[in-house]
Amino acid sequence: MQDQQQQSFDDTMEPTNHVFLMAYGGPDKLEDVRPYLMDVRNYRPTSDHIVDEITERYRQIGGRSPILELTNAQAAGIERELNGLADGGERWKVWVGMRHWHPFMKDVLAEMSTAGVERAVGLVMAPHYSRMSIGAYYKRFEEAGSPIELVPIERWNLLPGYLDALAGRVREGLAKFPAEERDRVPVIFTAHSLPERIREWNDPYERELQETVAALRERLPGQPSEWAYQSAAMTPDPWLGPDASEVITRLHGEGVRNVLVCPVGFVCEHVEILFDIDVEFTQHAETLEMRLERIEMLNDSPLMLAALAGLVRDRAAGAGLLRQTAPVTGAGGSS
To answer: pLDDT category, 333, cuts 50, 70, 90?
Structure first.
């Protein structure tokens, strides 16, 4: 039994269980912005003005998106946690595919199929379900025509490790303010806005976001807080609000001078964090003579990744996906 148990930590062992981890993707250099945007916009006509504006945003955050490296770090952490939970003869591999940039989901799925993967758990690095967010990843999986059977995880907005990690980041963020002011600093919880038309099909996105915020408020008793959306796209149709900039302006009018932004709909740094919050919202606050701070993003938070690994393994077990290279013999004989 001991030898078999040690097998699960052997890097030379062939994987027996697989995770297909998906994230949005982002340009690796400024020249990638136009083709990346074309993919995001489903190859609709895109004006030079929009391309130039988005390119400038990426220029201001270093000329590229860090999302691939951060997602790979998340994948490595989840894989490490899964193999720590593994029974003898069980080994996990986490594959990373991007929805809108390299490595594209369809290419990674092809690589997985070539490697002999037949079944996998699907995990999107976004906690809240919408047909336009998590649903769109699984739609793209279907469009890829992969023979792999994918067992989806569709939401994890109330996963305790995710919530506890976020609450910890909020406490750390509040510590940036003078001790005598911290308990009066409003926390602005944010998530990516989506078109208001999602309400027409009873999309659960708004409800799941509010469930997350309610759970965070329970973990942060007495701390004032607000809710806002951010990063609405440049389209003519109405998007969910209020926008965080509007909330900041209102708070200023109420005499507030310090705010802490806590994105709950994003789990790593990318342009919506590094530009929309760190540049735009910060500049807006400065014009109002306010101090705006942001929480450290969860990125590869061990607390969150351990919780996700547990969620993945439970989903795999419930779907009958757990496989081992050899039977594990226990006190009651073979299993």
So the answer is: very low
Q: What is the pLDDT of residues 51-66, one digit of tens each?
A: 999 999 999 999 999 9
**Tokens matching residue 202:** 């009873």
Angle at alpha carbon of residue 115, lines to 109 and 121, rounded to 5°? 50
- For residues 151-181, one letter each, b for 16 or more C-beta atoms within 10 angstroms of the residue's C-beta and e for the rest, the string is bbbebbbebebbbbbbbbbbeebbeebeeee
User: Are 95 and 324 a contacting pair, CB within 8 Å?
Assistant: no
Q: How many CB atoms lie within 10 A of CB 73?
A: 15
Domain ranges of the chain: 2-156+300-334, 160-294
Q: Which phi and psi angles does 24 have, rounded to 5°? A: -70, -40
> Is 160-294 a CATH 3.30.230.10 domain?
no
234: confidence class by pLDDT, cuts 50, 70, 90: confident
- Reading the block at residue 239, the tokens are 């998007």
Give me the CATH topology for the region 2-156+300-334: Rossmann fold (3.40.50)
Q: Which residue's structure tokens are 């792999």?
A: 148
- What is the rounded distance in angstroms from the CA atom of residue 101 to the CA atom of residue 108? 12
**Fold matches, 2-156+300-334 and 160-294:** yes
pTM value is 0.93
Amino acid at residue number 232: A
pLDDT tens for each residue of 237-271: 999 999 999 999 999 999 999 999 999 999 999 99
